Amino acid sequence: MQIPFIGTWLFKNLEEILASAAISVTVLVVIINVILRYGFGFVVPWSEELSVICFVWAVYLGISSCYKHKLHMGVDVIVAMLPEKVKPAFRLCVLTLLLGLNAIMTWLSFDYLMISTKSTPVMGLSYFYINSVLLLCFGMMFLHTVRFIAREVMEMRAIRNAKA
Question: What is the pLDDT of residues 101-115, one digit of tens each?
Answer without folding.
Answer: 999 999 999 999 999
